Amino acid sequence: MAEQASSAARPNDPIGRVLYDIAKALAIFGGFLACIMAAIVTLSVIGRYFLNAPIPGDYDIVAILCGCAIFAFLPYCQMVRGNVVVDFFTNNAPDRVKSSLDAVGVTLYLVTMMLFTWRLFYGALDLHQQSEVIAAFNFYRWTTIPFDILCNFVLIAVIAYTLTRDMRDIKARRATAQTAVHGD
Fold first, then answer.
1. Which of 19, 65, 109, 132 is most buried when burial is the number of CB atoms within 10 A of its CB?
2. What's the predicted TM-score (pTM) here?
3. Handedness of CA 170, 11, 29, 119 (dihedral sign)
């Protein structure tokens, strides 16, 4: 994004601070899930190698935890502008062009995540109605999806917040540039 991650990290306004704290807590929880995944994989490999007894369903457990961790990381990643940015073509463009393109990209991201959350909700309902389970340990697949949906709601709020902040900054820069040109 046109704005550096360090300057976007900690908002000063009340809504931004609350969203930042929630996103940070989710990211820390996602890191905890990643540590659990590492422990499961390590114990399963050791068990498989030395005792010929891996953890039953270890692939499924890691996949579930990985999905939850990814959803947990997304709001914080957006809040601190840690998303991948391909700016090869716009590297030498004026800041105004970069900011405008960033705003378009963030708007598309917002719409995409809203659609994704909507479909994830109906996917969870379908999995619940089908009572689909992971056979290795009789775990219903839909049970982690409400957490993922919650993370997506936080992500949508963070995207809307950052988009609003970006639009305000674009307008402020435009007003500053007009003042400088016209001498008002």
1. 19
2. 0.85
3. negative
